[in-house]
Amino acid sequence: MNILSLFQSFVNHLNNILIDNQYLHEIEHNIQNSTNILNLDTLKQILEFLDLEYKNSNERKEKYYVQQTRQRTLITSLGLLTFNKTYYKSKKKINGKYEYYSFLEDYLGISKWSKMTLAAETQLINNALDNGYTWSANNSIPNYITTRQTISSKIQTINYNYIEN
Fold first, then answer.
1. Distance (Å, rounded) from C-alpha 140 to C-alpha 127?
2. Under 8 Å CB-to-CB from 157, ≥6 apart: which residues?
């Protein structure tokens, strides 16, 4: 994990902001965008570091072959995150079939079909309850706009799972 390059790109982005003559609100907005980018890059580096550690581990080498590496995109509370993850194929057949495995999905506790993290869902729902669906869809996740229908579906899922005492 190269932390120095993360901060170097952050500093370069800040330098680019200060080149232009800008009003205070523009500087504030650009700094906020820079920190969001830094946070997403840091999270991406951490996830890819964890994936690489498992890929090189003896535990993995005993159980799985490396099948392929793919890009995965998740909506997080920090914004839209795209990272690389590795799929593995078991060395032995289980019930007549090979098992496929993704360490990162297992480690993070997310299904292979989920598109949004729990923190992002919670943020969307809380903002929708406080400010309305449209405001939440446009302002809850930095640099990403979702739909009101997505928020409505999330709330309906909660109401469906709610059981009155």
1. 7
2. none
Q: How far apart are CA 102 and CA 107, in angstroms?
A: 9
Could you count the other beta carbons within 10 Å of the beta carbon of residue 78? 23
Distances, alpha carbon 18 to alpha carbons 6, 11, 29, 36, 54, in Å: 19, 11, 12, 18, 41
- Please state the pTM of the whole predicted model: 0.80
In angstroms, the CA 155 to CA 79 distance is: 20
Residue 65 · residue 106 · CB < 8 Å: no
54 three-state secondary structure? helix
pLDDT in tens, the chain (165 residues): 577 787 788 788 777 777 777 788 888 888 888 888 889 999 999 999 999 999 999 999 999 999 999 999 999 999 999 999 999 999 988 888 988 999 999 998 888 888 999 999 999 999 998 998 899 999 889 888 888 888 888 888 876 555 555
Q: How is residue 69 written in tokens?
A: 């590496």
Q: Any idea what DSSP says for residue 92? A: S
Whether 75 contacts 120, CB under 8 Å? yes
Alpha-carbon span 28 to 54, nearest angstrom: 39
